[in-house]
Amino acid sequence: MSEVLIQLFVQLIANYTGLRIRTQDREALCRKLGSRIRSLKLSSPEDYYKLLEGGTDQSNSFAGIAAQGEWRELITLLTTGESYFFRDSGQFWLLENVILPELIAYQRQASISAGNIKPSLRIWSAGCSTGEEPYSLAILLTQLIPDWENWNLFILGTDINYESITQAKQGLYSPWSFRMVEPQSLPQYFQPRKNQWKVEEKYRRLVTFRVGNLARDRFPDFTGELAQIDLIVCRNVFVYFESQVISQIVEKFAQTLRFGGYLMTAHAELHGQNLEQFNPKVFAQSVVYQRRDNSAVKIPVSPYQGYNLPSSFSLPSSSGISTSRNLAPLPKKVSKPKNYPPIYRPSTSSPDVTLKQSDINILLQKAETLFKADRLDESLQTFQHIVRLQPRHFQSYYLIAKIYANLGNYHQAERYCQQAISIDPMSVQPYYIMAHITEEKGDLERAKYWLKRILYLAPLSISAYLELAAIYERESDQKRANKMRKTALEILETLPKDYAVEYAEKMTLNELKAYLIKSLQTQDSSGRTST
Fold it and tell me: Is 353:307 a contact under the CB 8 Å cutoff?
């Protein structure tokens, strides 16, 4: 394909899906397009482009329907969802202790004010992947609302990937989806199915799944389901989108929320966006966005300071309910059914808002000094103290994971890696730990997954290429191993002489290049490789 045609495909995909294809992703894109062209037995990439282009007008013609079906196939190749139950315990702490209790109290009062009609709560998990997030919300709601069966609970999960939605509807998951779930809680909410777990029927009935395209779908839809939503959760989705598309979706989200409703995204995903229709609420665990009421009746900004539950709300005048209705103060902890064990690992305490950053820095310096001195137990205690005081301290979670990995406690190491990833999904450090752990366990496919994730985020990561090469060599795939080494060598050739190579502390850049050249020459001379 010519560069011009590739750019046309990139733009067409962005227009149809909102997905951003980066320069370093174009080679992979060409492979995926090629696989679909061969599958359809088309004569040229131009023919495939015309086929896709025919689906952008949402035509009901035969050609338009065929094109939309092909978009479904291509999107499955372009999108890969990574999800698990109760992802980001900090944000779930906020949902459990602040956001959902406020929404539940609001809707209870609205029900009473409207003549004791059945209370309702409407939640949309946008970009839900294989469904772990909306099911997590369903379980959490049943814990927070003892009489939940007397409510109209509507939880919608949408994703652009048809295969992901098909899997979500089945509600069947492998143990990997439960890495933030307390093992003893699984039988209470899931049914065992050989080596998998199936979501209990009562929770599955609470969730509706459907395919949805955030970039192209029209919402709010006052004749259907997408209107007057109380909470929209759209996490780890915008990182793949063009900035202009994000702006358009956020505008549609604002109109889809009721006044006072909340939007929760992953951390920093809305940086630089116009958020005039929202009141940002800053917590230690996350920032959430509450829709403003731009009518004469204003929803007051609740002075949370991040830690206190609100005691009063104002209802929008358009609801037909009298405004400025005070509610009884909410308890610090919402009462739950007796004998209910926590299903996920929540943050153990609220942070101390008066703590100075300089105090945290002193503790961090102490912990890192102990770590370098190989006094791991003392270092671990200090890092854990830091995260109790500042629950979103990435470096502490990462180094706790590293300590546990060094101690051979892989379960805890993986747990803290996931915490670090939820705080900063763009940092590659925790992914290296996950790759080493899974390789140590003998799960080479999962190790390759983490290393490829690193290369997606940081294409110049020499370590990832060489570690992938070593894994391919273990699998007797010498051709791919050599390809990884050649790519690493090509990158090294472009780097300045004083560049610090992260692969081996005792090797200079020239020494590493010499090592790779010798390794490749050895393989060539042995006759075991073909390039």
Answer: yes
Query: Could you tell me the pTM of the whole model?
Result: 0.62
419 and 464 co-located in one domain: no
- Please name which of 236, 203, 231 lies closest in space to residue 99, comparing C-alpha atoms: 231
CA-based nearest residue to 165, from 203, 195, 210: 210
CA 383 – CA 476 distance, rounded (Å) = 41
CA angle 444, 450, 455 (to 5 degrees): 120
Q: Is 382 exposed, middle or buried (0-12, 13-18, 19+ CB in 10 A)?
A: buried
98 and 202 fall within a common domain: yes
Q: How far is CA 519 from the centre of its chain?
A: 39
| 110 shares a domain with 72 | no
What per-residue confidence (pLDDT) applies to 357? Answer: 63
- Residues 374, 240 share a domain: no
CATH code of the domain in which 278 resides: 3.40.50.150
Q: Which of 237, 232, 230, 307 is nearest to 270 (CA)?
A: 237
pLDDT above 90: residue 257: yes
Residue 478 included in any domain: yes
- Whether 344 is covered by a domain: the verdict is no
Cβ neighbours of residue 514 under 8 Å, at least 6 residues apart?
Answer: none
Of residues 365 and 150, the one with the higher pLDDT is: 150
CA distance 308 to 305: 7
Are 430 and 520 in a shared domain?
A: no
Give the number of domains in the chain: 4
Residue 529 belongs to what domain range? 460-531
Quote the CA–CA distance of 357 and 192 in Å, as a whole number: 46
